[in-house]
Amino acid sequence: MKNTVLVFGVTGRQGGATAMHLQKAGWKVRGVSRNPKMENAKKLAAAGIEMVKGDLDDPESLKGAFTEVHGVFSVQNPWITGLKKEVEHGRRIVDMAADAGVKHLVYASAGTGDKTTGVPHFNTKVEIEESVKASGVPFTILRSASFMELMRDKDFLPPLVMWNVMPKIIGYDFPVMWISAVDVGAVTAAVFNNPKEYAGKELHLAADKKSVKECREIYRSVYGKPPKRIPAPAWLFKLMQKDLYKMFLWMLEHRERESIIEDTRKIHPDALTLEEWMKKMKEIDYPSPAAVQDF
Ligand SMILES: NC(=O)c1ccc[n+]([C@@H]2O[C@H](COP(=O)([O-])OP(=O)(O)OC[C@H]3O[C@@H](n4cnc5c(N)ncnc54)[C@H](OP(=O)(O)O)[C@@H]3O)[C@@H](O)[C@H]2O)c1
Q: Distance between CA atoms of 273 and 281, rounded to whole angstroms?
C-alpha cells in the first residue's frame, strides 16, 4: 500500500505542521519547496522529510513529486503569490493529483465556501474548492478560523495588524474564533488517518473564541508585559491592505457557529486554547514557522 503524503507549503505554517503530525502518525512525507537549501527545508530534511525541489509556476518541476503518492496536502499563500497565481497553483495541484490517481486530497481553504463574503482571498479559495470538488479525487476541505500565529509570527506584523489595526476595525470586545496552524496540521493528519470519516467533508476549524482585549490580557499574563503596538490609522491600512480590511469588516457581520470548537475537538481533542498556545510559544521562543518542528 502506498503510504506517502505529498505536502505543499511544507516550509510554511500549515504545511510544516502537517508534515510533522503526519510523520508522527507513521506516514512517509514528501515536501515540496522552491528552495530545499533554505534553513526551514534543511531542518525538515534532517527530521526525515523527503524534500523535493518544485515550483508551482513550473509544472515540469513537479512531475516526479507525485510518483507513488497516496495523498496530497494543498495550501497556497496569496500574500506570497498574488490572487491570480493562488488559483492557478491550487488548480494545478488538483489536476496533477487527478492525473496521478491520488486517493485523498486535503485542501487548506478559509472563509465560508461561497462567494457571498466579498473578501477577495476567500473568493479565490471558492474557485479552487470548485476544482477540487469537480476533480473526482476524494477530498477534504479545511476552513480554518483566524490563526493564533497572528499574535506572534513576524510574517503577520503583529504589532501593527493584530494589536493595532484589527481592534480598531472590529473593536476590542468583538469575539474572534482562533486556531493554531500547528493544530491545523494535527487535524490534517487525523483526516488522512480516517478517510472513511472525513472524505467528502468540509470542516470548519476553531479551538477558542476570544476578543482582542482577552487576547491582550492573556499575552500580558504569559509574557509579563503587553504586546508591542505600532500605531497606524485604519484608513491607511484600508488603502494598503484592501483585502484584509474587507475581511475584518466581514468578520463583524459573520458570526461563526460556536459549535465548530466542539466539532474541531472531536477530530483533535488536544487542540490548544489561546492561553495554552501562548504559553507554548513562550516556552519555544517561537520566531517563525521554522520552529514548528520544535513545537
Ligand atoms: N492567517 C490566518 O489567520 C489564516 C487563517 C486561515 C487560513 N489562512 C490561509 O492560509 C494560507 C497560508 O497558509 P500558511 O500560513 O501555512 O502559508 P505559509 O506559511 O506562508 O507557507 C506558504 C508556502 O507556500 C510555498 N510556496 C510559495 N510559492 C510557491 C510556489 N511557486 N511553488 C511551490 N510552493 C510555493 C512556500 O514554500 P517555499 O518557499 O519553500 O517554496 C511556503 O512554504 C493562505 O491561503 C491564507 O489565506 C490564513
A: 12
